[in-house]
Design a protein that fits this description.
The complex is a heterodimer of chains A (515) and B (1036). Chain A is mainly α and 515 residues long. Chain A has 17 helices and eight strands. Chain B has 1036 residues and is mainly beta. The two termini of chain B are 45 Å apart. Classes of the chains: A mainly alpha (515), B mainly beta (1036). The interface between A and B is large, with 113 and 123 residues.
């Protein structure tokens, strides 16, 4: 019995031993080697790979024409997205933006505002990953490539503080909760970065590299930064903006660096800044490059046009309000961006019908923003159809900055510096190419009168170019002036709320005042 | 090659052991015999016959015959048992080298306590099982039209919830064992077929999108296995599953296929033909009702006269035009037999199931071979299981989720009923599909969509394993199993120019391939000594290596001059799209050990420990240990406990830890890849951009579930009635959750181990032999399932949104939130109050006070609003049932048999996304149809659709899932062959009692955001048919 038990014990031990020691003979290797993607440390080995890495940081510029663009445009008077029967209610998001009634927990706050926050920070994160990787290696174009990456990052920060005020300034690649920097700190960071990179970036790129950032781009962002310095370095409380110091002279200086660079001239034909071949325009300083290729094209037409005006069928959403349309001078060439009255298919030029079978007519009046008909609201088609478009993808580039705006920035700054007549001359240069016969602003107007002139002129020149929200805030009108469907709103709404989903993720983020 | 490197040593090692201990074998003989049903005298296949106290045993063949060799000489007790029958024991004197014969007649019983159960890497006597296990007798469950094993399980096992995605032939399923604990990671159980874990990934690439909509969910990968080849399905729910460690958190489904037996050969042929029809209807306006409605609206000046003028002359019921009475044909032929040392079973199957919606279906061709051979006087047993399967999926272009332009089901509802399906040109006589206009438009003739879009997938799958099982010395057994699972599929799609969908691309052709290769190596040593006395002890140790490679390739071209070439000539298209290819490799490695100890057949203890590693986790977090312990005590065997009414009473308890590795390979790494979003244009050239596609998470590790299970098994009236009551708590921690991360981050989300969920539940089963006479027997079974799921923690977050709402005007709308304290599948939205006099919907309006972090502190109802904002959103429903119940019954009277299965779920909410979007009169302004309930809902014709509690419906239902009636007759014996024939008629889904207004409340639409689970959303799914099947089975 004892013997047998011992034998059993030995056998148990043997089984256990085999079970336990089999690791020694068996495969235990679990190292992962990715096969259809690559670790950053194995990438960035040559110029071509570096361009590939750089392209992805640029690629995020496309996202600035989505949620960021929609927030700035729809919350201003330039655009309105009425609910059209069963279409475009979308959770009430658009009505919230139209009426400036968003919140940190509201559909627009959790949707579009959150989307803009993510898209812009993604650009920053991509830049940081590429900067960290290129830091470790040396290559001929390293200074310029890193300057581009830093300029892109500064631009994404420029847009973030525009929407949200202070945000965390991050230059490493760690993912962790971080506190917000103040808006003035973000301003200073952007300013410092751009002042450094503008010394390194080239004046121009060879044609095949068109679209990469230049000195002009860095200077244009700086000019805009300085123009808005009182807002961008100010503080926002529930009672509104406590402005920071003005930087008008810096705005003039930054503008002059562009104007005197000899690189840019105003396009003779104003519309050529928006057509599919607008990459040829001598006026464009910094643009988002688009191409008529799946996923790489501009789709503004889809947002605005009626279902039957284009192929594929557009979405019949974005329109403008009568007030804005009517403020344009009938003789102003720039008014041609509006589609109003009986409509045609923009590709075939054939008259089109609405979905109930009547001829499609766009009317300036929208009788009810919660229940508009198909034809209500004037449409903006500033970027015309690209004849080579592939489905919804058009090749027209979107300029964040073009020379005309630099004229206007300089003019506005000069006026604030008391040089109104020089400012009027600059505005008239811009107007000269769009009025025939010319219709200049009278040289004798006052500084105060010029302020009205410049705000309007910026509307006429830059409608739909994502500037209107900044302009209205700078002029104190964004929340305070009522228009069509928007009443006077609380002054703290010049900043967007931090979406609640972001605070859930990063509890160190303090909410903006008022929300 | 790697595999060979590790198999060889294992084999060689095993052989050395064999030689070393080979000399000790005592003299043996052979036992043969036959088992029949004592009532019907019919042969009983699938009966386990064991020589007690030894490892010798087998399973009877179709003719009820068995043969066991290598039986030690002397007096032996031979035990025959089969689930559903009372076991019998016979004593046989076995002479050395002699063959003894013994006959068994088993009487039917409902006892759950008898039989042998497959528990993973071995079998166990049911009475000795300490874990929570449900067994399904495949023969009993295989009634009606069953395309795959998932359908066998539905309603037949407590704690196992099976929801078919839709009524599509071979549709995918959501199987949740004990509620499903994961939020982001997979909730799929592990499937083990003949001992080899199977990588249950979709076999074919997903569909080409129609517009921006999400394509339908993939079909069930298990369609490749013929249900008629399945002998039994065992569901391991708790600590018993822990032997599968890492992959066991969602439970394990162990499938054993039918095996051959000595004797014969026997042959069986089965043929069934089914007819599926649409069970329920979505009530839209008829052409006449539609004309009348438009006329009324025109009179009321709410719709323009042009809409009336545009109406057609036809009277089309689009649902009728889109559906059909669809046949299913199924042929099974099998033969089995063998000698004492070699047994085999071979089967072939052809199934052809047409969809109840036109122009789709699935076909399966399958052949299977199972063979076993024993040598070295029965001490070495070798086995082979080989399945070759070819499945052809004909797909229908419909949508899972999406906006207003869509596939067949959107258009079936909205397409104008006054328009015809086809038009015939009076001059040419040519008949074409009617479309609203030339080229692209968002409303499309659904019949044309179904007919013109070609989309076919073909998959060939080889599933095979070979095993060698060697008695090393008395009580010690070594086993090596090598398994290979390989599939290759290609999916060809062509959207022709002649169809509005294809027209937008001037024709679109795609070919997409997907192939997967899994290799498994298992080495197991089992030590089961004959201790004598009162103790029974078994120790098992093993190693498992699993390696998987998945590859995909697709090419797409647009811009064709002609539709004639279909998808066969991609080079004929003028617009080639970027090519796509990818490859993923993953490995899982495990070391495991299990100890079973039984004392006096009264006390049982099982301990399991497994150390598992998976390549997908972060460096340093790849390995983890999964222990489990469970015990049972047969109270009814104790003399000091009064028996009371119970003939059997057994207490079980167990605790175990299991893992969930359901994450994609490389999930912990930062990876750069080229994708569409990272391309950018420099000059005029699009430059390929390389960008990080995911955030790194080096800490990524297992999701761990700790499960405690307490159960009472009972039997009374001499076990004529028996069953069990179980209570469990499953705590899942380190949840694999895709969560938003603090910005800046290259991607806005990351897979992290964050949060906790808890599932609690009560499972009850009761089986009874209600009547047991020679002329009439009646058994019935009941399974009851009460589950409570709740999210305990989300890593400090107060909620995460999920559940996109589909349809026009719904972009950005979300229907569910994952909230601590609430279940997964909690609906969140405004509370619908009613419709006001101006036809606007009104919702509760709240005033909410929030703290400095934006979290809600209090809320107060302050009235109603017609435009609900963020503060007006509250919890409005729960997709989880309060309980579910399955009732099955089977009766034999004379030669007739009758069985049925009723399935019910109560107290669940379903979001009827279909009604939200399509029960809207406003469609009429654009010539579209709508669901008739909108006629009387009082909502103005211009009102937008607003997601709210109005669309959360009670989804409680009672379903008569199957009724089968059969008749068996014997044809006089011919030349020694017993002929046995059964004819039957079976109905699936004959009756559905529910207040739910859609096609079916038991549905699944995957509307997840960032892969966060959604439950209970119904959007335009493929209707679930009612099927009548007739069949005949002949045994030779």
């Amino acid at each position: 019995m004892i013997n047998r038990r011992r034998t059993n014990l030995i056998r148990v031990a043997a089984v256990s031993a085999v079970a336990l020691f089999s690791p020694a003979v068996a495969c235990t290797d679990l190292t992962e080697t990715p096969t259809s993607s690559i670790a950053p440390e194995n990438f960035y080995k040559n110029e071509e790979e570096i361009i590939g890495g750089l392209a992805s940081v640029y690629a995020q510029l496309r996202a600035t024409t989505d949620d960021y663009y929609n927030l700035t445009e729809v919350s201003s008077d330039e655009y309105i997205v009425p609910t059209r029967g069963t279409d475009w209610y979308d959770n009430g998001r658009w009505l919230e933006l139209d009426r400036q009634l968003w919140g940190a927990n509201s559909p627009a706050g959790l949707g579009d505002v959150n989307g803009a926050w993510n898209a812009l920070f993604t650009g920053i994160a991509r830049a940081n990953v590429a900067l960290a990787a290129t830091d470790k290696i040396s290559f001929a174009s390293k200074p310029v490539v890193q300057a581009e990456l830093r300029t892109l990052r500064a631009f994404y920060y420029f847009l973030l503080q525009d929407l949200f005020g202070g945000v965390p300034i991050v230059t490493d690649t760690d993912i962790k909760p971080r506190e917000r920097n103040t808006r003035a700190e973000v301003f200073a960071f952007v300013e410092k970065e751009l002042n450094e990179t503008r010394a390194i970036l080239p004046d121009k790129w060879p044609t095949e590299m068109n679209g990469r950032l230049t000195k002009g781009a860095a200077n244009a962002i700086l000019a805009s930064l300085y123009l808005n310095a009182q807002v961008f370095t100010g503080t926002v409380s529930t009672t509104g903006l406590q402005p920071g110091a003005a930087r008008w002279a810096d705005a003039v200086a930054a503008s002059d660096r562009i104007l005197n660079s000899g690189v840019y001239t105003l396009a003779t034909n104003w519309r050529s800044n928006f057509t599919a071949d607008n990459y040829l325009s001598p006026e464009i300083i910094m643009q988002v490059m688009f191409k008529a290729e799946s996923g790489l094209g501009l789709n503004f037409l889809m947002r605005a046009l009626h279902y039957s005006q284009f192929k594929p069928s557009p979405w019949n959403g974005f329109a403008t309000i009568a007030e804005v349309y009517n403020s344009f001078d009938a003789a102003d060439q720039r008014r041609q961006i509006f589609l109003v009255g009986p409509q045609v298919n923009l590709e075939t030029n054939q008259p089109v019908l609405d979905r109930t079978g009547n001829p499609l007519v766009f009317t300036p009046e929208i009788h009810d923003v919660t229940n508009a008909t198909e034809g209500e609201g004037v449409r903006i088609a500033k970027w015309p159809v690209d004849p080579a478009h592939v489905n919804q993808d058009n090749g027209n580039d979107f300029a964040h900055f073009r020379l005309a705006e630099i004229y206007l920035i300089k003019a506005e700054a000069l006026n604030e510096l008391g040089q109104t007549s020089a400012a009027v001359a600059l505005v008239n240069t811009i107007r000269a190419r769009v009025f025939s016969p010319p219709k200049p602003i009278s040289a004798g107007i006052s500084q105060a009168e010029f302020r009205t002139v410049i705000l309007n002129e910026r509307l006429f020149e830059l409608t739909s170019e994502a500037k209107r929200r900044q302009d209205l805030i700078r002029f104190g009108q964004y929340t305070q002036r009522p228009w069509f469907n928007k009443a006077v709103r609380e002054p703290y709404r010049i900043l967007m709320p931090i979406p609640q989903t972001q605070i859930e993720t990063n509890p160190l983020l303090a909410q903006n005042a008022g929300y | 090659m790697t595999l060979v490197r590790y198999i060889l040593p294992a084999f060689v090692g095993g052989m050395l052991w064999a030689v070393a201990v080979g000399a000790q074998t005592p003299p043996t003989g052979t036992v043969t015999g036959r088992v029949v049903d004592s009532t019907t005298q019919q042969p009983l296949p699938g009966v386990t016959v064991l020589i007690e106290g030894t490892q010798r045993g087998t399973v009877t063949g179709l003719d009820g015959a068995f043969r066991i060799s290598g039986v030690p000489a002397g007096n032996q007790r031979v035990r025959a048992r089969r689930i559903g029958y009372n076991p019998r024991v016979a004593t046989v004197l076995v002479g050395a080298g002699a063959t003894e014969s013994v006959q068994f007649g088993l009487s039917a019983s409902a006892s759950l306590l008898e039989g042998v159960v497959v528990t993973g890497y071995g079998t166990q006597r049911r009475v000795a099982i300490t874990g929570s296990i449900a067994t399904i007798d495949a023969d009993k469950a295989n009634v009606g039209t069953i395309a795959n094993v998932s359908q066998l399980i539905e309603g037949r096992a407590a704690g196992v919830n099976v929801v078919q995605n839709s009524g599509e032939p071979g549709a995918g399923v959501q199987i949740r064992i004990r509620g499903g604990t994961s939020i982001s990671a997979s909730n799929d159980p592990l499937y083990v077929i003949d001992g080899v874990p199977v990588n249950n990934v979709e076999t074919e690439t997903s569909a080409v999108r129609i517009s921006n909509n999400e394509p339908p969910l993939p079909r069930n990968p298990l369609n490749l296995i013929n249900p008629s080849d399945i002998a039994s399905v065992t569901v391991l729910k708790d600590a018993a599953a822990a032997i599968y460690g890492t992959r066991a958190a969602n439970g394990v489904i162990v499938i054993e296929t039918k095996k051959g037996a000595a004797g014969g050969p026997t042959m069986e042929y089965e043929f069934s033909a089914g007819k599926a029809t649409l069970g329920r209807h979505v009530d839209v306006l008829s052409a006449d009702a539609y004309r009348q409605f438009i006329q009324q609206q025109v009179d009321a000046k709410t719709v323009k006269p042009t809409v009336l003028a545009a109406l057609g002359q036809a009277n089309t019921d689009w649902e009728k035009a889109m559906t059909r009475s669809a046949p299913t044909l199924n042929h099974n032929l099998s033969f089995a037999g063998g000698s004492a040392n070699t047994q085999y079973r071979a089967s072939i199957n052809h199934m052809n199931q047409q969809g109840v919606v036109i122009e789709n279906g699935f076909k399966r061709y399958q052949a299977r071979l199972n063979a076993t051979h024993q040598t070295l006087k029965g001490r070495l047993r070798m086995g082979l299981n080989l399945t070759g399967s070819h499945v052809i999926n004909d797909y229908l272009p419909f949508d899972n989720t999406g906006g207003f332009e869509g596939g067949t089901f959107i258009n079936t509802i909205v397409y104008n009923p006054t328009y015809p399906v086809t038009v015939t040109d009076p001059t040419s006589g040519e008949t074409t599909f009617f479309e609203l206009g030339p080229g692209f438009q968002s409303v499309r003739n659904p019949v044309a969509l179904a007919s013109q879009i070609q989309d076919q997938g073909k998959t060939t799958r080889i599933l095979g394993n070979v095993s060698a099982d060697l008695d090393l010395f008395a009580g010690l057994r070594g086993n090596v199993t090598i398994g290979v699972d390989r599939f290759d599929s290609n999916r060809d799609t062509y959207m022709p120019r002649s169809n509005p969908v294809g027209a937008q691309f001037q024709g679109l052709a795609r070919q997409a391939n997907r192939n997967n290769e899994s290799q498994t190596l298992q080495t197991v040593l089992t030590y089961h000594p004959q201790l004598g006395g009162n103790s029974d002890f078994e120790l098992l140790g093993g190693y498992e290596f699993f390696k998987n490679t998945l590859k995909e390739f697709s090419a797409e071209t647009r811009g064709f001059l002609t539709d004639a070439l279909g998808s066969n000539s991609l080079s004929s298209g003028s617009q080639p799209q970027p090519l796509f290819s990818q490859r993923q490799d993953s490995r899982i490695i495990g070391f495991f050990s299990r100890m079973n100890y039984g004392f006096k057949d009264k006390y049982f203890l099982t301990g399991v420990i497994r150390r598992d590693g998976a390549s997908a986790f972060g460096e340093g977090n790849k390995w983890a240990v999964f222990p489990a312990i469970s015990a049972s005590w047969r109270l009814s065997k104790e003399t000091f406990i009064p028996a009371g009414p119970f003939s059997e009473l057994r207490l079980r308890a167990g605790w175990g830890k299991q893992g969930n590795p359901g994450v994609p390979p490389y999930a912990s790494l930062i990876l750069l890849a080229a994708d569409g979003n990272s391309r950018y244009v420099f000059g005029e050239r699009a430059v390929t951009g390389f960008t990080p596609t995911q955030n790194p998470n080096p800490n990524l590790k297992w999701e761990e579930t700790r499960q405690t299970n307490v159960a009472l098994d009972y039997g009374f009236m001499r076990n004529r009635f028996n069953g069990s009551v179980e209570y469990y708590i499953k705590n899942t921690a380190d949840l694999l959750l895709t969560v938003p991360v603090p910005q800046p981050a290259v991607v806005s989300t990351r897979l992290e181990n964050i949060g906790k969920t808890r599932n609690k539940g009560l499972e009850m089963s009761l089986d009874g032999q209600l009547i047991s006479r020679s002329s009439l027997s009646w058994t019935a079974g009941l399974v009851l399932d009460v589950q409570r799921n709740s999210v305990v923690d989300l890593g400090g977050r107060s909620f995460i949104p999920t559940g996109r709402v589909s349809g026009e005007g719904q972009s950005g709308q979300v229907s569910q939130r994952i909230i601590p304290g609430h279940a997964i599948g909690t609906f969140y939205g405004p509370q619908f109050v009613g419709v006001n006099s101006t036809g606007q919907q009104e919702f509760n309006k709240y005033k909410v006070v929030r703290d400095s972090t934006g979290r809600e502190v209090s809320r107060e109802l302050v009235g109603t609003t017609t435009s609900p904002g963020g503060d007006d959103y509250v919890v409005i429903g729960d997709a989880n049932p309060s309980f579910s119940l399955g009732l099955n019954s089977r009766a034999n009277f004379g030669r007739f048999d009758l069985s049925f299965l009723i399935n019910t779920q109560q107290g669940l909410d379903v979001f009827n996304n279909t009604a939200l979007v399509y029960a809207t009169k406003g469609n009429a302004k654009r010539g579209k149809n709508f669901i008739a309930s909108a006629l009387t809902d009082g909502v103005g014709i211009d009102e937008p659709q607003i997601y709210s509690s109005r669309w959360i419906e009670n989804g409680s239902f009672v379903r008569l899932q199957n009724v089968t009636i059969g008749y068996t007759f014997d044809i006089p014996k011919l030349s020694g062959f017993g002929q046995h024939t059964r004819v039957y008629l079976s109905g699936d889904n004959l009756l559905l009692l529910t207040d739910y207004s859609g096609y079916d409340p038991e549905v699944h639409t995957d509307a997840s955001i960032n892969s966060l689970a959604t439950r209970g959303i119904d959007y335009l799914h493929y209707p679930r048919p009612r099927t009548i099947t007739g069949g005949i089975r002949v045994q030779f």
